Amino acid sequence: MPPRRRTDAEVLAETDVVTYGRQEFLEDVWAYEPGEHVTILAPSGGGKTHLAYQLLDETADKRLQATVIVMKPRDSTVTAFSKRTGFKVIRDWPPAKITGVFTEKPRGYTLWPKESAEPEITEARHHAIFRRCILDNYNHAVSRNSDGKIVFADEVVSLVEELGLAKPLKTVWTKGRSMGSGLWAASQRPVDIPRNAYQAHHLFLGLETDEDVQKRYGEIGGGIDKYLVKALVSNLELQQFVYIRRDAREICIVDR
């Protein structure tokens, strides 16, 4: 007779997983090296974009520049983030060259193309702009004036399914680490994203009540006990995250 599978409560009782406050995690636990990939998964309203912006604010600087890709025509959260962090809003890629002795290099860009009245024109234009951004950051991640590059693709599924950017994204996922090019991706469900996103060096998994999704989280848990990952994810509070650093096989909970 096979051994009885432990309940979530039994798994959690046998494990001591540390919970960090959000600011404590950002200041004392979070450590990022150029070229590492980040994947954040949580349902709508789960706080994944807010977490990504906090991580970018902690990580990006003038030598490790980040670019946030924005597809929505309007978003007050994006506007507030750009103003607070000094990310320069641009409408096309590449950015205009910085000239002048007193002009400071920004720590990051918010790439936010204009919308057209015709959806087909918007999609074609966004495809071209975002493709140039992804590949340019990949090709020029490490240079005399840079320690690396970060591209944050919120709702990466839209870039793949709506804009057909699976190929350049895969290039960065599979080869970006050695180039110093980090791809940060967020999505609502793990079943929708390319499997390359599962191999990110940093995984953040939000509250999930769907049992099939919980199991998928366990399968992509970076060498951590899959039953532990499932138990943790199913018992989170809204806007908490399970954090897994795959290379070190470390796990903790990041509080709200």
Question: In whole angstroms, how far apart are the ends?
Answer: 43 Å
Strand order of the biggest β-sheet: 1-10-9-8-2-7-6-3-5-4
Name the helix and strand elements from N-terminus to C-terminus, one letter apiece. HEHEHEHEEHEHHEEHHEE
What's the CATH topology label of the domain at 52-184?
Rossmann fold
DSSP helix fraction: 25-40%
Q: Per the principal axes of the C-alpha atoms, what is the gross shape?
A: globular
Q: Helix/strand-derived class?
A: alpha/beta
Overview of this protein structure:
- 37% of the residues lie in helices and 18% in strands.
- It has a domain at 52-184: Rossmann fold.
- Strands 1-10-9-8-2-7-6-3-5-4 form a 10-stranded mixed sheet, with helices on both faces.
- It starts with 7 loop residues before the first helix and ends with a strand.
- It is an alpha/beta fold and 256 residues long.
- The protein has 9 helices and 10 strands.
Characteristic key phrases:
256 residues; alpha/beta; Rossmann fold; ten-stranded mixed β-sheet; 9 helices; 10 strands; 37% helix; globular
SSE topology:
Elements: H1 8-13, E1 19-20, H2 22-29, E2 38-41, H3 48-59, E3 64-69, H4 76-85, E4 88-90, E5 108-111, H5 119-139, E6 148-153, H6 156-161, H7 166-179, E7 181-187, E8 202-206, H8 211-219, H9 226-234, E9 241-245, E10 250-254
Parallel strand pairs: 1-10, 2-7, 2-8, 3-5, 3-6, 4-5, 6-7
Antiparallel strand pairs: 8-9, 9-10
Describe, in short, the structure shown.
With 256 residues, the protein is an alpha/beta fold. Helix content is 37%, strand content 18%.
